[in-house]
């Protein structure tokens, strides 16, 4: 069927195609990074020879039974499940200025060294590129406080690589002090409970919003 052109040169009768949300590509990357984080935590649950964090230690049996589908469902949160002091502007200011941050710099490593190095670099590359292109999405999806997003956006690629290599042990699961959140997330993912997953996502967004408001 032919269409005629209007005075402004556009075709009358042609459907208006929906524009893709600006954060859609970032959200896909968030899900991929979340899945790598969850896969690493699930592997930790089967290794009793090493120290692990409370969110895994308190629910080892649950973590260890997650199959690939359950891990993927757990990863499909509308926010990043990985954190690198994204609410702490003092930590980021210190590492940018090549000073050793004094805040919890000696806390134990969460992930094995190789996994921590990979996860840290991928996390920083994602946050750096997102903060440089859209600070709003960096806050909504990655949980970066505005002042932290500004610092990260101002880094050069060599700075990102340096921080990723030197501070890999600082990459953590978000809300590691909330084992109840993680247990609910993993349980709903294992059972394929969509209603509960939706509620957990809303709860996570509330927590993220509270974190951002606390930084202001």
Give the key terms.
two-stranded antiparallel ribbon, 11 helices
Structure in a nutshell:
By secondary structure, the chain is mainly alpha-helical. It has helices at 24-44, 54-57, 60-64, 68-75, 89-96, 113-133, 135-142, 146-153, 157-166, 179-191, 194-215, and strands spanning 82-83, 172-173. The protein has one domain.
Main sheet properties: 2 strands, antiparallel
Strand content: under 5%
Tally of strands: 2
Count of domain modules: 1
Q: How many helix segments?
A: 11
Tell me, what's the shape? globular
Overall helicity: 55-70%
Order of helices and strands: HHHHEHHHHHEHH
Q: What Rg is obtained from the alpha carbons, in whole angstroms?
A: 20 Å
Sheet/helix structural class: mainly alpha
If strands are numbered along the chain, what order do they take across the biggest sheet?
A: 1-2
Average predicted confidence as pLDDT: 88
Oligomer: single chain
Through-space gap between termini? 56 Å
Low-confidence stretches: 1-11
Would you write up a description of this structure?
- The chain is an all-alpha fold and 216 residues long.
- It has one domain.
- It is 59% helix and 2% strand.
- It contains 11 helices and 2 strands.
- It has a two-stranded antiparallel ribbon.
- Helix 6 crosses helix 8 (146-153).
- The longest helix has 22 residues, at 194-215.
- The protein starts with 23 loop residues before the first helix and ends with a helix.
């Amino acid at each position: 069927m032919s269409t005629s052109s209007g005075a402004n040169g556009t075709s009358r009768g042609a459907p208006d195609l929906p524009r893709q949300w600006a954060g859609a590509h970032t959200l896909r990357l968030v899900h991929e990074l979340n899945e790598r984080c969850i896969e690493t935590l699930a592997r930790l649950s089967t290794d009793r020879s090493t120290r692990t964090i409370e969110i895994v230690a308190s629910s080892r049996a649950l973590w260890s039974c997650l199959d690939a589908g359950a891990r993927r469902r757990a990863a499909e949160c509308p926010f990043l499940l990985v954190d690198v002091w994204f609410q702490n502007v003092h930590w980021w200011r210190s590492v940018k200025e090549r000073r050793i941050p004094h805040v919890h710099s000696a806390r134990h490593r969460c992930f094995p060294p190789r996994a921590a190095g990979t996860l840290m670099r991928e996390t920083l590359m994602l946050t750096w590129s997102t903060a440089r292109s859209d600070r709003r999405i960096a806050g909504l999806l990655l949980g970066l406080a505005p002042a932290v997003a500004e610092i990260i956006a101002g880094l050069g690629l060599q700075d990102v690589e340096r921080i990723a290599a030197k501070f890999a042990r600082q990459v953590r699961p978000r809300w590691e002090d909330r084992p109840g959140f993680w247990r609910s997330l993993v349980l709903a993912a294992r059972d394929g409970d969509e209603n509960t997953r939706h509620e957990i996502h809303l709860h996570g967004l509330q927590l993220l919003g509270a974190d951002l408001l606390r930084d202001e």
